[in-house]
Amino acid sequence: MLPVPVDLPALLARLRAAERGEQERLAGLEARLRAFEDVERPAYARWLRLELGPTLSALDARRDELRARQATAFRVQTLIERDGFAPREALHAILHPESAPPRRDRMDPDVVDARHAKTLRKPGRAPRRGGGPRTHRRAAAPDARAR
Asked: Among 98, 88, 94, which residue's Cα sits nearest to residue 75?
């Protein structure tokens, strides 16, 4: 490589001027950002509340209603699983607590298991082969039966 003559003081002066320009540009951008945060953002938030306020209020009300329904569903499920209530009975107990039947808190787990087993199979019936529910089978074609 060939040596290139460089005027070091002129180069440093030019770089200082460029740096000063970049610092001024950065300061201007920071001032715009502060103005946006102090003036424009609150104005935008006010405008947004005016334009979308009723819709957002309705959305919040629906969200609260959904949470209440989820809590009710959870309580119904708890009464069904823990206390052995029937689904309608559990819902009625939650919606009308003054007329709810007494809670069965201290139910024997063996009794619960026996009730569950009773719903799975009827007494006096042998268990089904295959272990699954009955399926409807199509009648075989007449020529297939003859074979």
From this structure: 94
